[in-house]
Prior knowledge:
Blueprint: E1 5-11, H1 17-27, E2 32-38, H2 43-53, H3 64-72, E3 82-86, H4 92-101, E4 105-108, H5 116-129, E5 133-135, H6 143-153, E6 160-168, H7 173-176, H8 190-193, H9 198-214, E7 220-226, E8 237-243, E9 249-255, E10 264-271, E11 275-279, E12 282-290, E13 293-298, H10 307-311, H11 323-338, H12 351-369, E14 375-376
Parallel strand pairs: 1-2, 1-3, 3-4, 4-5, 6-9
Antiparallel strand pairs: 6-10, 7-8, 7-14, 8-9, 10-11, 11-12, 12-13
Helix pairs in contact: 1-11, 4-5, 5-12, 9-12
Amino acid sequence: MSNKIRWGVLGGGGDSLIGVLHRVAASMFDAYQLTGAVFNPDHETSKAFARQIGIPTDRIYSDHHEMIRLEMQLPEDERIQVVSVLTPNFLHFPMAKQLLENGFSVICEKPMTMTYAEALELEAIHQKSGAVFALTHTYTGYPMVRQMKQMIAQGVIGEIQKVDVQYYQGWINPIIHDPQLRKTTWRLDPEKSGISCCMGDIGVHGYQMLEFVTGLEVKSILADLNHLYEDNQMDIDGTVLLRFDGAAKGVLRASQIATAEENNFSVAVYGKSGSLKWEQENPNYLYLLTEDKPLQTLKPGHSYNDKMSLDGTKLPPGHPEGIFDAMGNIYKGVAKAVRNQPYEAGEFPGMRDGVRGMHFIEEAVASHANGNVWTDL
């Protein structure tokens, strides 16, 4: 009998980019077997996609309720163990909730829920379930992001003074200026996306990243968001000032109307004795700056890197790794947790990241709505 983890998927069918990303990531370390799915709300479309990618259709279900009900009727050693939730935002909470209540481990796309209240409820359910929960803040899987985290923890750049996170995209720019087109994307529909578009979609990545690499927690924020048009309720651009404990401060800049930008995500952390910079579009380079030495460039796969960075490196030095590899590292960490194998804190984002992310989104919107005021987290 295969010792692979039996894996299910909700969403991610057809030409979904996110579906391909998850399927490739799950296949990387030979840890998962795609066992059952609901790829599409239409059952026949789901089965057709299953045949297209070469998996049996006997466990392609009509919806997640049927998946859970029928899987629970199977012997435990045949039942799906982990389910990935790859649907639009408004379905994350009800699906993850029902899965956790029935003992399934969950890998969930972000944002975790539609509201902070839902996030707290899901956290309580997770604590009772004994299951593994992972949130796919994919960028934490890059080896040089993990190296950055370890170097900061080791005091390489000294006490943190300033954090600067930027996430600039331009994808919504051709849509937002057309009154009809801006009604066609679910990300601008608060009933499907939640109260925020830009901060909920990409700003929360920056927020999670800065807490991940620094080990600090944001204590208060001041947000200035932009909607461009009165008939658009959702932010598509914004800047958030950040305060941590002590003297450290930061800024988070996110935009979906940064014309012609693709996926310009970067993080810089400035300490008393040095700084570290990383850019998603050039993910294999981590830059270390100090006042007494020339710029140093660290790359993945070398022995000078930390254990967690090396564990997430699949190829020899000089062979670029990218977003599929980063997601694969998250799936690898989840596999260790499901199998009760030792794993390092930080190998996959979890429930805490989701709860804090939803709190950040809601308070950023509130800070802007209340006149750009400081708001405690």
